[in-house]
Inverse folding.
């Protein structure tokens, strides 16, 4: 008897990598190069965080589907300091960006609706869509090597994107900067995308959870013309994923904003999921933004610098420095299968990396590692990857070495 909904048609049980991971985690020399839970990796201003919750009002309950106005005003203020003007009435607070996505899908989709999702990209979106009975349709971001060698530009394959739009298509998701590529859309792709969304009446969903970790803060100018929903939250902005507070921001034609507000109000009112203490504390918590963000940026910078030094003379590994986000892509030129590489590296050198297929990096042997791992552990991990790659060279045809 199968008690599960037919939408759960994934393979049951652990795959090989997960099995080896369970054993490896118990070994004293285990290195986790995927680790990206900030709460165990950085020093927090505990006094400030605790003071955010010392407030007699946390005992009161003021349900509001959009979230407390004072909390939304704190967000307006946060963005204003960055030069981005937002309207307090166009924010909706949610308990996590994933929840925001699920609220949007409940609001704009019917069973059988389709949403376009970028590949490579954040793997959770496929699941979130399936859970809302929405079909996830992929469009490709195609890598192009820039003149500065260790940088890839990822461009939308508009032919595939347009071919995949039909009358069931409701929205296009973009992740800016993208996880795991660390790239932003080019200005020309952004403009084309906005035009396409306008032409086809599609909602543009912009996941910008890593926008505070872009090389410079940016306002995605061309998107201001589209009917957009921007997503962000304190999981990344304040490195506080355990506090479960995110937001969506509606922008575009007045008719679009009004309709979406009406729909989202019904959905959000059915859950009222964001707890009062965190809503009341946000203003104070945001005072600590620069302190935690600068620590994270510094770690990313140091780890990127180390990667450049360590890998510059190793042609068997290509590295592609991100413009934003917390992740780094490595391409192993001496292997063709990313899962095999990750399994063997974990088994032989007790070092865990994500195989690229987890992010739909299907061609070549890409692996993904976290740039917020503490510096010494990160360096030892990279050295182990180099050692393992040298010891296990496979004879591959020259054609696989396409980024050199
Ligand atoms: C690109 C991207 N979007 C959304 C999320 C989910 O964020 P939240 O913790 O706010 O649900 C993550 C989490 O890592 C992410 O990487």
């Amino acid at each position: 008897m199968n008690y599960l909904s037919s939408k759960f048609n994934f393979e049951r049980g652990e795959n090989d990598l997960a099995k080896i991971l369970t054993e490896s985690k118990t070994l004293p020399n285990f290195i986790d190069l995927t680790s990206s839970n900030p709460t165990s990796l950085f020093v927090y201003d505990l006094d400030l965080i605790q003071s955010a919750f010392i407030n007699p009002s946390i005992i009161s309950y003021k349900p509001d589907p959009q979230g407390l106005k004072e909390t939304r005003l704190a967000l307006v203020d946060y963005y204003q300091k960055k030069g981005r003007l937002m309207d307090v009435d166009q924010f909706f607070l949610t308990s996590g960006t994933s929840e925001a996505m699920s609220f949007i899908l409940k609001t704009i989709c019917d069973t059988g609706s389709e949403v376009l999702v970028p590949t490579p990209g954040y793997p959770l979106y496929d699941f979130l869509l399936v859970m809302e009975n929405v079909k996830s349709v992929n469009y490709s971001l195609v890598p192009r090597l820039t003149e500065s060698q260790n940088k890839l530009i990822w461009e939308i394959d508009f032919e595939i994107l347009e071919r995949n739009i039909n009358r069931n298509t409701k929205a296009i998701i973009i992740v800016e900067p993208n996880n795991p590529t660390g790239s932003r859309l080019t200005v020309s792709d952004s403009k084309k995308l906005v035009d396409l969304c306008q032409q086809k009446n599609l909602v543009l969903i912009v996941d910008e959870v890593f926008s505070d970790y872009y090389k410079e803060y940016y306002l995605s100018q061309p998107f201001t013309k589209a009917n957009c929903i921007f997503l962000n939250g304190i999981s990344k902005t304040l490195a506080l994923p355990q506090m479960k507070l995110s937001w969506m921001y509606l922008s575009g034609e007045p008719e679009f904003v009004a309709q979406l507000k009406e729909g989202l109000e019904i959905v959000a009112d059915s859950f009222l999921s964001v707890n009062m203490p965190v809503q009341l504390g946000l203003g104070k918590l945001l005072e600590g933004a620069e302190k935690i963000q600068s620590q994270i940026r510094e770690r990313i910078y140091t780890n990127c610098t180390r990667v450049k030094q360590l890998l510059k003379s190793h042609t068997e590994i290509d590295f592609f420095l991100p413009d934003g986000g917390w992740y780094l892509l490595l391409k192993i030129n001496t292997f063709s299968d990313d899962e095999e590489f990750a399994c063997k590296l974990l088994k032989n050198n007790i070092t865990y990396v994500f195989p690229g297929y987890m992010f739909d990096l299907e061609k070549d042997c890409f692996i993904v590692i976290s740039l917020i791992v503490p510096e010494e552990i990160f360096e030892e991990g990279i050295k182990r990857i180099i050692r393992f790659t040298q010891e296990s060279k496979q004879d591959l045809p020259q054609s696989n070495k396409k980024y050199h």
Q: What stands out?
A: The chain has a mean pLDDT of 93. The first strand starts at residue 31 and ends at 32. Residues 31 and 351 are 5 Å apart (CA to CA).
